[in-house]
Structures are given as structure tokens and as C-alpha cells.
Amino acid sequence: MYRALYRKWRPQTFDDVVGQGHITESLKNQMRTGRLSHAYLFIGSRGTGKTTCAKILAKAVNCENPQNGNPCCKCPTCLGIDSGAIADVVEMDAASNNGVSDVRALRDEAVFTPGVCKKRVYIIDEVHMLSTSAFNALLKIIEEPPEHLIFILATTELNKIPATILSRCQRHSFKRLDRELIAGRLKYVAENEGIALKDDAARVISSICEGGMRDALSILDQCSSIGGDIDADAVYSAIGIAGNIDTERLFDKIILGDTDGALGIFHELWCGGKDHSSTLSELATLLRETLVLSVAPKNGADMISGAHPAERLRGFAGKVPHALLIEHIKTASSALQDAKIMHAKTAAELCIVTLCKSKSITNGILIPADFEDRLRRLESGIVINGAGSFTPSKEPPSISEDVLSLAAEIAKSHEEGAKSPGAIKPAALTDEKTEEAKEDDIITPPWEDPNEGDDRPPFDPDMMDIPPVGNEEQYPKPLPTEEKEKEPEKAPSPLPSPAAPATPAEGGSDNERIRKLKETVKKELPGSRASILDSPMAQFYVSGNTVFLATENQFAYTQLSKTCDTGIYTKAVAELWGDGYAFRILAAGEPVPALIKAEKEVSPEEKKVSADRLSSLLEGFKQGGYDTSITIS
Fold first, then answer.
1. 620-632 burial string, b = 16+ CB within 10 Å, else e?
2. Of the candidates 120, 117, 96, 116, which has an alpha carbon nearest to the alpha carbon of residue 107?
3. Burial, 199: exposed, middle or buried (Cβ in 10 Å; 0-12, 13-18, 19+)?
4. Bigger pLDDT: 200 or 431?
5. Distance between CA 90 and CA 54 in Å, rounded?
6. Backbone phi and psi for residue 530, each to the nearest 5 degrees, phi listed first
7. Does pTM top 0.70 for this prediction?
8. pLDDT one-digit tens code per residue, 413-425
């Protein structure tokens, strides 16, 4: 009866084990000195020799004629263990016997002395599959086993083994085998089996078996059925993968953004019987090796599989930037996951289309497909102000209320020497026909021209292109303009037009009415919402026929704009200003339409400090190229 190559060529002694000398030498020394442990834990990836070494150790401890730590493989005990005729050596698969009842049965029979061998050995493969109760049932006998008992546990997932088990075992970690070592072993087996295996085929097999000798022998066994010489193409055809050449062709089309060509190559591979997931996996491997060789040109050569020439990978790395390679790898990995839950071919085609559309080439420069979207987001973060210069969308420091109040008082006291009392204007926009301010507390915005129509943009003090003192670099000076060729089109104002201002009711100035409005509304609102009106998060303003309530953040806007409270504001505004006035709450971040605020009592000491601050502010205006009619005496 034919035996598979991995079974036929399984090592029988420690000396036959390939690539695990750090473990086999340790076990041989323990055999020679007699210092054996009662429990071993073998850890490593699949096909690296865990179960093989466990069986060799079981033979070595029971061999009648051990030779330098190795079993003789000729005595009745060794032959009986190899054939499975001796019941004292038990191999248990924890993947199918993982219940607590299975472990209890094992524990009950383990206490009996061996019938033929010196030691009773239990080999538990895939031990991480045991349940929590099964591990608990195994604890006591592993901690204090009888003299005749040895446990050998094998696992591929160390993280699933309880710490209580780990602390009772002697651990040995099996490493992945080197590609050259696997290729040499494959050539040795092929020569003895009469298989014509070429060097390139051996390298391909060793690169795709991921360091496992058993997988490599299984692939060789599968390729041997083809007959004739076995080369790299025969390996690709036998195991149903695209092959390095086809994968590189596919990646070439992806780099060029040729979606039609990339899908054509994929369809060609599909018609040739290649698996969709295998094609995606090979593409992800190619992307990964290109990235590794790109970011680690010195040590990266030892980290790649060798399926693709290093020169070819370096060529790819020179065409694709690191960030784009990382995005490609994420896209391919995500497609591999999607292939498990949706149609595999559809997932693979979507992945290829996404990779091709993820960038374009312009004048030899790679440009991401979302470049335009990112550019629009960048442009939305820059505001072109009235002076024609660029200002970051991040709000600059706002002018405090005491400075604004003091500015209004100073403007009122210097009416005689000012062309427009309380107005601060750039020199280029100064007009002799400016009308007198109708309200003592109003400060005209820098760009506002009284001779223009009502379609001018609303005033937003936070967006004034005025460089704060001591921070000129952050806010650049406006560009000098000698003449205005053409006024840019201005967006229509979202605010109500004050074309026909209503006559306010009797009862004082707007500032006094605002104070009364706050007192009236606070009595009607619940305590949580009324407290917001006393905080800086909410401010009342008057513009034309409308009273505005401006909020600084979304929380304040949500609390103050409740439908049940709208009538309270409207009623109070009608009582204080008259029926011709409307009320509106501005959303967080919406431009403030006016500068009429509630006055704040300022002490003489505070006025002196505020005057100094205002002087510094005006000096900053002058440094920014603006002309001002305000002077400080």
C-alpha cells in the first residue's frame, strides 16, 4: 500500500529531525543523564516536527538499547510503538476528545503501571482545544504524576494554554524551517524517490509552505503525480495558484491604473482554474514583500519568501510609495475576508478595481484617486477674507467684551476728529461719503461700505483679517491693492434683510432691552437652560428687525432651541421691542450679524487696563496696513 511521502520520510531518531537542533540536542542530553521531566509542552507552527519529536521521545525513554540519546528503532519496544501495538504509549487528539469526561477517563487509567514499557507516555496533540473543565481535570495529575507517567503536550497556539498548565510543563519552541533547508531536504527525498525535481521547483515549494516540512513534502507528493520533470510552472499548475510571473503581470497593470488589463489577466487566471482566494493571497504576498524590501533594503532580503526576484521587487518599490503599498495591502487583506462571506470572484474583482482606481499617474507622479476630495477639504479649511489674503479657518482669538465696550466709549468721545465715529477701516476702503453712525454702540466692520447694497456679507468679528499683536506670522498682512478692477461675487446673506426697520417700543436702548430680555426669559425657562444664558456660551444681538441669540457650541444651541421655549423668546421680544421685531437663534458657528451687546459695568481700574489693551490692538491694526480714525488720549 502506498504511503504518503510525509509519513514515509518522517524522522525516526533525533538525528533525523531537520532544523530543530536546539530542541533535539536538549532532549538527547536529558536521555543520556536521565534527568527527564514529567511533562513537556511542544510549541510551534504546523509541520515543524512537534508530534514527530514527541513520538521519538516516547520511543527513547522506553528503548531497550538507546544509542547516545536516540532510540535504536530495532528493539521490540521501538517497533511496537511505531506500529501502535503497545498500549502504554497513547496519542490523543484533543481536537476531537476535548471534553472533561475524556480527560477523566485518561486520568483514571494513567495511574496504572505500564504493562510492557518502562514509562507510560501520553501524547496530547492540539492541546489548546481542551475545554476549561478538561484543563482543570488535567491539572492535578500533571502537577503530581506517578513515577511511571510522562505527558507530552503539543500546540500551535500558546496563548490558549492556561497559565496553570504552562507553569507545570517544560516548554520547547519549534521554529519555522529555513527555505534553503527545506529545498535541500526536498532534493534529497526526490532523488531517493526517483522524482525529477528541478531547483526552481524546489525553491517555489519551499517558499509557499511557510516553514513547514510536512507541507513541503505533501506538495512534492502532489506534483510527483504529474510525471516528467517538475519545474516551477508544474508546481503552480498542480496546486492551483497563479504563479509569480502572472502575479507580477497583474501588479504591473495595477500600478499603471489599467483596470481593463488587470481584469483581463484575472479572467485569464480564472479560466485556467486558478483559485480566487489564492490569487488574492499571492497578490497580498507580493505587496508585502515589495513593502518590506522598500522600507528595509538591507535586512529585507532575509524577510521575503524568495518567490519573486529581489530585483523585480525593488523595481516595484521604486514605482509605488510606501503609503500606497500599505493601503494596497489593507485592501487585499479586506478582500480576502470578504471572499469568505460573499461571492469569492466578486470580492476578488472588486479588490482589483479598487487597487487600480486608488491612484493615477500624471507626468510620472503617482496621484491618489481621492486627491480631488482631499484638495476640496483643504480648500474648505481656508477662507478668503475681504482684503484678499488667506486666513486659516481656525478661529483667531476673539475680542473680549470689555475691549469692545471701551472701544464704543472712546469712539463716542472722539467724534469731532473722526470722519466716521467708531469706525475702523482699511485705507483702501475709506470713503468721505460715509454716513454718521446711527447707534453710539455700533462699530462698523472693516470691509463694510455704507454706500453698498444689502447683499454684502454679514459681519463676523472672528474672521477679521487683523493680525493680533505679537502673532503677526500666524495671520499674514493683507496684500496691497492699488485699484479694484472687479468686485468678486458675494454670496447672498442668509440673515434677514433690514430693509424696513421697525420702530422699537419705548423703554430705553437696545442694551437695556437685552438685559430685560434675559431676566424675563430666565424666569420662564427651567434652571438648567436658564443658567446657559448667564454663561459666555450665549449672547444676544440686534440687527435690523431681528433679535438674535448666538451660541458658541452645539450643546448650548440644542438646549436653547427647544420648540417648547420658542414662544417665550418671541413673546418677550414683542413686549420689549414691538410687534415689528422677530427673534432667531443662531446655530453654533453661524456668523453673528451685529455688535450690539449688553453693556458691562467697568471699574476705572479695568478701563485703564482695557485702554492699554486697546492701544496695543490699534497698533496692530496700523502694522497690518489699516488706517484708523480712533486715537487714544
1. bbeebebebbbee
2. 120
3. exposed
4. 200
5. 11
6. -65, -35
7. no
8. 555 444 444 444 4
